[in-house]
Amino acid sequence: MKKEYSQEILDEIGAKFPHASVKIHAPRRTYINIPRDEVYDLAKFLFAEKECRLSITTGTDKRDGIEILYHFSHDPSGTYYNIKTLVPKDDPKVRSLADFLPAANWIEREIHELLGVDFTGHPNLVPLLTAETWPADLHPLRRDYADEHKEFKIEKTGRDQ
To answer: Domains plus CATH for the chain?
Structure first.
């Protein structure tokens, strides 16, 4: 039988990271909103001190910035702690987790390539998915992609409209 998620972990997060805003979305799904300059320390805390593992990182272009979600699993309890931060589009930078968390390497490269987020300190932000001739400043998952690069815009068919 799995242990219930620990209020102790949430209490520690509240004490160590006063700028964090914790929201329990479901009994085993917690979202922690935090400024981008504190993401690294919170991720390291969850990984090194609470033995959570990074499942995946996701990025979404929102109207007010690029949202990065780091999904950490606490396997003994079956709880996910999701670190959520908003990166401004005019300064799309956040510190890389790859120096202590090798699992972050490829997904940070992918988010960098597709959304244009610079993961500072990453050892090798070489593209994974696009062709070698793909322009470095062209990020296909950005909202402004189609507007700024009309030559790459795909025409809608009757079925798509």
So the answer is: 7-152 (3.30.460.80)
